Amino acid sequence: MPKKQENHTKTLLNIYRNRSLDAYRNKRIFTMFRKYSTIRKALLKRGWLEKLPRDHYAHLQTLPEETLLQYAKRGNVYETVLISRMLDKFPAFFVWQTRIQRDLYGDVKPYRNCIRRSPMVDFTTKVGLIGCMEQVHWHGLEEGVAKMSYPRAYRLYEKYDEKNFIDDFRLTQCQALIRFLINNQYHIVDLIDIKEGTIRSEVVKFAIDSLKRQTDESQSPLSLDSEPQPVTTDEEWNAHLADCSRVISSLEKIKCNHSKIMQWIEIGQELLSKIEVKRIDLKWDGWKNLWILKPGYKSRGIGIVIRSSLDEILNWSSAHTDSHYIVQKYLERPLLIYQTKFDIRQYMLISIRESTVQIWLYRDCYLRFSSQQFCLDDLRECVHLTNNSVQKKYKTNTTRDPRLPKSNMWCLDQFKVYMKTQNVVADVWQARVYAGFRENLIAVVLASLDRTILCENCFQLYGCDFMLDEEYNPILIEINSSPDLSPSTEVTARICPMVLEDCIKVIVDLSRNSRALTGLFEMIFEVNYKFKPNYNVKEGLNITGKSIDLCPRRSLTIPPKTSKKRKRSDIEGKQTGKLDQKHLSHSVIFRSVFKRNVGKTRKSYKCTAKYLQKPGAGCI
Q1: What is the average pLDDT across 516-535?
Q2: Are 156 and 296 in contact (CB under 8 A)?
Q3: Confidence (pLDDT) at 137
Q4: 130 near 155, Cβ under 8 Å?
Q5: What is the mean pLDDT of the chain?
Q6: Which of these, 144, 111, 151, 146, lies nearest to 130 by C-alpha position?
Q7: How far apart are CA 440 and CA 147, in angstroms?
Q8: Which has more pLDDT, 120 or 561?
């Protein structure tokens, strides 16, 4: 190699080495185990350098530096590999990895897109979301700040939960029968026949009695004096469930007269109204008693089925024990758009700072539609699962409304236009829908926080799926830890790169500049997890209250103690060996503590006596 060319090569190598050293000093080295070009471009734009994983451009990483330098040009893969070679001995300060990977470079606390928590409250799984639903009631969440709206659900692989589900299914079937009769009360003559009816009228009375018991339990808590409720055997329940199914599904007639059935309908309507005041989620139910079964740790609609038979549900779970199935009440009365089911994909970002956990919510979202018209008699996945991974397998049904998009997606602006055509109040989106997103997600995060590993600079982007009820109230369905951010349609091709770009603004830019813009991400809640109470360690425990005499006062004589250095008066203030009755009568608790210490070591005696002599000590 000519000397001039050799000098040029050394100069270029020094330039790259200096760039690498500057990147290390300024903590601007990143590594990515997943191919998100938007993230990569955003970091390179900010002056960061990329450290490649071993399996990226593996055939080039084996080449010597001179060869890489020979073909390196600004921005090409040879330069990328060359820079990565220079960074080999330095840690990465931004790591984009998968959940199953081991956390690297923990000693430098890099920005890492992975937050780990206990499986019992890992809300990115169906099982963990149920755990959060159970925990949220213990957190005393403030009204208007955090509230979880989630369909009731049970873990079928746990016996206790399975029993609770069976009880719920039976009670829900009673409610379903009454709703069915209420919905058909103007055509009730088609459902009754006093002479030739095949279903006994006791089926309605059985359901009414069940609703009465539910109402009594919700209004007055159980007490020891309450009368025991009559026990219904499994055989009686099975017979009742079968009769309800024959009425609702097969339209078999009830052997009852018109006046009696109308009287029961009126009573049932009143009881349902009382129950729904306490149980908002019951307003989402219809009369089909449908339940959706989901594998506890899978996503993208894999293994999901919908059933309305108790035996079928239990048998399905028993046949798939390895999948840890959960069962969730299916929303039979969701908000529909042109008679088609949809859900809303919303993005949430959690960031762990030095002493706080921040929850960020994206102000943009999009809708995902089913390719088929909504129908509760057709339980196929193409009708009820709106995931893009499911719907892309099916062609749009010709009976579906042509005003819906062929891509099965709407952006937020299109949904707002639709709401205007339906005469929905202008502020419903912001005041009810978006506010509901915020309350649900804050509640979920707070419920899981006690069992979350809080590592500084860790963050995670989540895809949150919501449905709306008929009054535009959001209902949380599930949360995904690895949402699909690919440009699968025109809608996602616009919003997904924006979300990733704004994610970098929050995680990187804001941490280095408190005035940095955060794009469409809005911080909706912040928790200080390093809270230290402000107390003075020099002061003792101060207990204030009112003196109460629980037993007659007695004089307590302290046994004499020999001491050459100190007199008893230094401890008691009296030579007689008797403590002041004023301080001994304040509390039985402190008197008993004193008595237990009498006769023990001098140290314990002095500590107890000194505390009891302190004015006001021992007051309750």
Answers
A1: 83
A2: no
A3: 77
A4: yes
A5: 85
A6: 151
A7: 5
A8: 120
DSSP sequence for 579-607: --HHHHSS-HHHHHHHHHHTTS-HHHHHH
Domain 117-150+334-528, what fold? Answer: D-amino Acid Aminotransferase; Chain A, domain 1 (3.30.470)
What pLDDT, on the 0 to 100 scale, is given for residue 613?
39
Residue 554 is predicted with a pLDDT of 52
- What sign for the dihedral angle of Cα 178, 179, 180, 184? positive
Q: Is the pLDDT of residue 594 over 90?
A: no
Torsion angle defined by CA atoms of residues 401, 407, 413 and 414, in that order, rounded to the nearest 10 degrees: -10
Q: What is the pLDDT of residue 560?
A: 55
Its pTM stands at: 0.81
Backbone dihedral angles phi then psi of residue 88, each to the nearest 5 degrees: -60, -35
C-alpha span between 183 and 265 (Å, rounded) = 10
Calpha distance 569→577 (Å, rounded): 8
Distance CA 165, CA 317 (A): 12
Task: Please state the three-class secondary structure of 314-340 as a single string.
Answer: HHHHHHCHHHCEEEEECCCCECCECCE
Taking the C-alpha atoms of residue 594 and residue 60, their distance in angstroms, rounded to an integer, is: 79
Q: In the structure encoding, which two tokens stand for residue 312, read together?
A: 């079928």
- Distance (Å, whole) CA 392 – CA 20: 44
SS3 538: coil
pLDDT digits (tens, 9 = 90+) for 566-592: 444 444 444 444 444 444 334 333 334
N- to C-terminal Cα separation, the chain: 92
Query: 221 pLDDT exceeds 70?
Result: no
Strands of 49-50's sheet in order across: 49-50, 29-32, 94-96, 111-112
The two tokens of residue 181 are: 């009769």
Residue 414 pLDDT > 90 = yes
Nearest to 90 by CA among 50, 58, 61, 117: 50
One-character DSSP codes across 365-392 = EEEEE-SS---TT---HHHH---HHHHT
Q: Which residue has the tokens 């009673």?
A: 174
pLDDT of residue 587: 38
